[in-house]
Amino acid sequence: MSILTLxxxxxxxxxxxxxxxxxxxxxxxxxxxxxxxxxxxEHRDWLRLSSQKLEDAYxxxxxxxxxxxxxxxxxxxxxx
Length: 80
Hints:
This protein has a domain at 1-33. 21% of the residues lie in helices and 8% in strands. It has one helix spanning 41-57, and strands at residues 8-10, 15-17. A two-stranded antiparallel ribbon has the order 1-2. The chain starts with 7 loop residues before the first strand and ends in a 23-residue tail after the last helix.
């Protein structure tokens, strides 16, 4: 068998493959522990900004808009 790399994780008790793979009993394995990757500050800032803007757009104070405000009706839209 050729060398393969399979994604896996440790669930607190045992190492679990992330995708099914048929291993034969007594197959030799090498386990590499990867460092936990924390999101960088820029990525975290973008996530925070996105979250804030979604809250602004869909907040409790967002008014309900009636269909009378439409300038052009989309003929492919099915009213709900």
